[in-house]
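User: Sequence recovery, please. Input:
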């Protein structure tokens, strides 16, 4: 008889919140390192034009600024320069949440 998704959890010791946070921070750090090392060759991630890849990574980086304020720019300067260029596009500049202008414009 197949076990339901909830049944395998019964009796299992849930990880602590701190353990969970550490694992998630590690995932973020590895993703940032990978994205920083990616050879973009020009201003865009894929091909020679703005794409969904640029949108996704740009939004993810700005979300880190908004919800997870760490000095990722100091550790990943190429990625920070890429985001600075992408962030000048109207689609990014016009949708900055209120109060985030300072965080985005602040020196990092």
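Assistant: Recovered sequence (108 residues):
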């Amino acid at each position: 008889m197949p076990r339901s998704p909830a049944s395998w959890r019964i009796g299992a010791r849930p990880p602590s919140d701190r353990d969970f946070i550490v694992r998630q921070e590690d995932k973020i750090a590895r993703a940032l390192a990978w994205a920083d090392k990616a050879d973009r060759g020009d201003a865009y991630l894929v091909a020679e034009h703005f794409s969904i890849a640029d949108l996704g990574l740009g939004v993810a980086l700005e979300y880190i600024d908004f919800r997870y304020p760490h000095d990722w720019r100091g550790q990943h300067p190429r990625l920070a320069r890429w985001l600075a260029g992408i962030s000048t596009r109207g689609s990014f500049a016009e949708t900055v949440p209120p109060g985030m202008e300072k965080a985005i414009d602040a020196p990092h």
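The helical segments are 17-37, 52-67, 72-75, 77-86, 90-93, 101-105.
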